[in-house]
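Summary of Year 1 activities. Much of the first year was spent building the evaluation harness for sequence design. The harness presents a backbone, in tokenized form, and records the residue chosen at every position. We chose the following record to illustrate the format because it has been used consistently in internal testing since the harness was completed.
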């Protein structure tokens, strides 16, 4: 079964064609980051306009890359939640039009949930249950996944998402977007113990996150004459301690032997290494996608769409975009 995936929820125009939820046949991504970097952050109105300019070209190119006729797809999956409203509208409108013209089912999917399925884009058999940690510019969510499409959200951020904090601190330190990779590069040359920073909400049994206090603390330190490398390394260590502590605590309580990392921040080597080391010690398998599938892409959207489709779930042409939404089973 072949599913077309479309994601225009934020600052990337992404389209992919995926077979059976696993095999990426084609994938295209046009990033707007250079434009937004001029303004110091993503400008919603600019994002919508850029998506509108790109979407038809990106779809055509994705099919052309593999010489595939659009009628060959069995369904069209599109991110309809959460995201920037104007940006979401572009993808949803295009997906509805394709669904109507090609007479193929439409599937509206949750962007954060789709990140989890970036780990399914391989032939490695998936074991359940899994504890999923979605860490990106918009999500910091801990989910217990008992099976495909079955979730219990255990905790999420009460304020800023972890990637958002990376980006804001990077901006404060005079680094460009995306902040994550820039901070990671500096952190390699810094001392993670140089600056004492809080480990927000790191108490047993609390699975929510709060990173805005950490951001304020880091900015406070940056006012003093501390090396950017040391600030970056100390900040990153605090993030690692919090993410690791909470995720392995949940895995222990839920007796889960697989941790599924996803989202742009999961591209961070220091975070991946820390999780793998702890996983080895505790006999827990840690899985994460290759870097280009950690960050936004449409293959993960098509993969989730495939599982919904084979489960008999699809949307109708009244599908609406939602700026905010939590992960649920439908
Ligand atoms: O998943 P993603 O592409 O988009 C959202 O769904 O938000 O994630 C983007 C976020 C940005 O905040 C970016 O700074 C962060 O992921 N990121 C990283 C790294 N690469 C991207 N954060 C830390 N270390 C990285 N290597
Ligand atoms: Zn994302």
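For this record, the design step produced the sequence shown next.
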């Amino acid at each position: 079964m072949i599913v077309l995936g479309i994601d225009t929820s934020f600052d990337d125009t992404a389209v992919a064609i995926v077979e059976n939820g696993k095999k990426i046949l084609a994938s295209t991504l046009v990033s707007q980051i250079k434009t937004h970097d001029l303004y110091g952050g993503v400008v919603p109105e600019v994002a919508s306009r850029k998506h509108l300019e790109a979407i038809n070209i990106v779809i055509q190119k994705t099919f052309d890359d593999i010489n595939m006729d659009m009628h060959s797809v069995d369904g069209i999956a599109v991110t309809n939640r959460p995201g920037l409203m104007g940006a979401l509208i572009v993808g949803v409108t295009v997906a509805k039009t394709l669904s109507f013209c090609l007479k193929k089912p439409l599937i509206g999917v949750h962007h954060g949930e789709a990140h989890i399925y970036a780990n399914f884009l391989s032939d490695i058999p998936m074991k359940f249950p899994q504890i999923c940690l979605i860490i990106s510019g918009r999500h910091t969510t801990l989910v217990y996944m008992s099976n495909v499409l079955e979730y219990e959200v255990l905790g999420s951020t009460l304020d800023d998402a972890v990637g958002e904090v990376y980006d804001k601190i990077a901006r404060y330190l005079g680094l460009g977007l995306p902040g994550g990779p820039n901070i990671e590069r500096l952190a390699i040359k810094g001392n993670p113990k140089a600056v004492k920073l809080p480990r927000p909400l790191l108490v047993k049994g609390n699975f929510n996150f709060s990173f805005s206090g950490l951001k304020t603390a880091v900015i406070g330190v940056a006012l003093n004459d501390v090396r950017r490398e040391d600030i970056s390394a100390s900040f990153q260590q605090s993030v690692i301690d919090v993410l690791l502590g909470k995720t392995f605590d949940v895995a222990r309580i839920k007796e889960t032997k697989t941790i599924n990392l996803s989202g742009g921040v999961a591209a961070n080597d220091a975070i991946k290494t820390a999780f793998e080391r702890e996983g080895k010690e505790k006999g827990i398998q840690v899985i994460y996608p290759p870097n280009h599938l950690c960050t936004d892409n449409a293959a993960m959207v098509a993969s989730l769409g495939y599982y919904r489709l084979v489960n008999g779930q699809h949307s109708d042409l009244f599908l609406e975009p939602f700026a905010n939404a939590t992960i649920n089973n439908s």
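The chain has a mean pLDDT of 96. Quantitative recovery figures across the full test set are reported in Table 2.
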